[in-house]
Amino acid sequence: MKNLWRLNLVVLLALFLSFSAKACYTVVAGKKATADGSVLFAHNEDDGGLRLINFWQVPEQIHPEGESVLLTHGGRIPQVSRTWAFSWIESVDQEFSDFYMNEWGVTVASNACGSKVKDAELTDGGIGYMLRRIVAERARTAREGVEIAGRLLDRYGYAAHGSTGRTLVIADKNEAWLLDILPGKYWVAERVPDDAVVLQPNIYVIRSVDFKDTANFITSQKDIRKYAIQHHWYHPKKDKNFDFSYVFSEFRAPHFAERGYDTRQWRGQEMLSGRKISTTQAKASGLPFSVKPAHKLKPADLMRLLRDHYKGTVYDVTKDKKGNPNSSSERTICYRTTQFSLVAQLRQGMPKEIGPVLWLSFGRPDVNTYVPFYPVAGKIPASYHFVPGGGGWAQSLAHHFNPLPGTFTYRPDRAFWVFNDLENISGLNYYRTIDSIQKAWKSMEQEAFALQPAMEKTALQLYKTHPKAALRYLQETSFVRAAAAMQTARNLTNDVKGLVYR
């Protein structure tokens, strides 16, 4: 009981020190920019305060004629006859923080962005929370996902409560898109070049829009150029290009106002391109939409980026080896509010149950590990979700914005709390504990990477004759790795206590 009380105290202390910032970060690499030809999608989800993260698998569903979808702010839209199965990472009671990957590998995450818009046009309260979920339910490709979202935005407008704009990153096994959304009914989407990588912090990163290039750009039904001209944000006779970011962005972050660029976009472009990017140049002309990587990217490259604290740069928060780099005033990629982190491998040439791999870290990734899941292949371990009373995903959705009593109660048998125990107690003496923690996780991840080709070869061979057995094999493999990661986290928590309290 004494140890449990102590861990609870650590949890409460960490929560007290956190704040309610919502500052996520997404990275997406085209299929010609990666080592295995996959589209790679990486994301850190940041939400402060008392949180609970659930990982659910929602089955494919058939809906009766006349059924409708109730939107968060009161509107209704007709339901389709069939919705796809999808994986859902839920940040309980948060409107813009959930992540989705459906059975076709269509993957969706969200990033808050500040805009100048103050006069949002909404119909029936607009659409917000349900936008990503509807894309996951209905889209078979990323482009179709953009088109579905675009039609909803054209009809209802974006209800950007809690922020003044948003970017959705939507990807599949073939391509990826950024959908930059203003409050109301104006938006622009740009396709990620196949041979490049895009770094998406909490600012709009789409720059020059080519309205004639319909292969790489999709725009709102309402004329966004006319809207910008009416507000005196765009002057076509003077401005050579329609630069979406500079026309509409409201750069509210203090470090951005001072520097003229977002350090997370700058750092990501430097790390993945392998070249130094002048901060003076970045301030003068901004950063490009995408960069070509120095080498073909693997999941490990993006995991390294998601764990980054600007080591070796002018903004390095680790150089004095004091305190906790996640609690610095400098907004690093990995930060104290990071609730979960992931890298999705979206691959062609495989059955849809085997092609998408989701490497998931519950909690901050610098202190925790990425566990590989094949979510389309089967169930999610019961330890990765929780609803009071033992309910499933439907009950969790019904109570997403009004959590049941006991939802946020500490439960040492659940993955979210197991990994947060390690995160919180190591944070009391970060530099004394972090080396041993990262050494253990590095060993596990290297083993997972090494075993992946042989394991998938077995699954693919089995799939030809016994597809259900192949999927059970992948599911059980994921279950074993998830259980091993949880036990390792418990062992590490006990090990680092001695270092913290020594």
Provide a quick synopsis of the model:
The protein is α+β, with helices and mostly antiparallel strands. Helices cover 34% and strands 17% of the residues.
Descriptive overview:
Helix content is 34%, strand content 17%. The protein is an alpha+beta fold and 502 residues long. The protein has one domain. The strands form four sheets. Strands 3-8-9-10-11-12-13-15 form an eight-stranded antiparallel sheet, covered by helices on one side. The chain is globular. Mean pLDDT is 92; it is low at 1-21.
Give structural attributes.
alpha+beta, single chain, disordered N terminus, 502 residues, 34% helix
Helix proportion: 25-40%
Give the domain tally. Answer: 1
Q: What overall geometry do the principal axes of the alpha carbons give?
A: globular
Radius of gyration (CA) equals 22 Å
Q: In what range is the share of β-strand residues?
A: 15-25%
Largest sheet composition: 8 strands, antiparallel
- What value does the average pLDDT take? 92
User: What strand line-up does the widest sheet have?
Assistant: 3-8-9-10-11-12-13-15
CA-to-CA gap between the ends?
20 Å
Low-confidence stretches: 1-21
Count of helical stretches: 13
